[in-house]
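Today's session is about reading a structure prediction critically. Students often jump straight to the picture, but the first step is always the sequence itself: look for stretches that repeat, for charged clusters, for runs of hydrophobic residues. Only then move on to the predicted structure, which in these notes is written as discrete structure tokens rather than atom positions. Here is the chain we will use throughout the hour.
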Amino acid sequence: MKITKDINIAVPIPIEGKQKSKQNAESTNTETEIVDGCKKKSVKHQELLYKKYYGYIMAVCLAYCKDKNVAQEVVNDVFIKVFDSIASYDIGLPFKGWLRRIAINCSIDELRKNKKFMNHLDIAQPTLELPSTDLVDTLTVQEIYHMLGKLPEILRIVFNLYEVEGYKHKEIADLLDIGESSSRTYLARAKTSLRSIASEHWK
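Below is the predicted structure for this chain, in token form.
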């Protein structure tokens, strides 16, 4: 009869293996655990949240702040605000949506602080009719963001808020301190400009 025994042998884990184990441990932290940790002011969980959402927040800020250095400053402001106010976050709401709104508000605050909205386009002329969006609708997200970078700042921001974020014209007007009719005009001009840019892109 063959008898076998279970023998436990302690095998040293290489340094590289320890690093991978640490990374795997970090990756197992769920969003809820990270948020709960941040609510308890855990520095470890704040670092995890920063690493997890840094790229996402930067992408949002770059949609409004073209200068990468400015966007980086806004990202830092976003995380400071997040850590300061996370105790009031309602866990029943989508966390990324909550983060995104803070990022948008911080981006707009930065632009207003630097008086970026002082040079609005002339809107005294009659409001433009909304153009056909056939060309715009066929663009990829990457193409749209590239082309948005060529628009005047106010047009880019209104387009982002309305078409990408889903804000209503009244919300945009309140956020940017402009009239609802101005918001509609800027959106129409943004679409007109995008169609023109798209037409040049495909020539």
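Discussion point for the tutorial: The mean pLDDT is 79.
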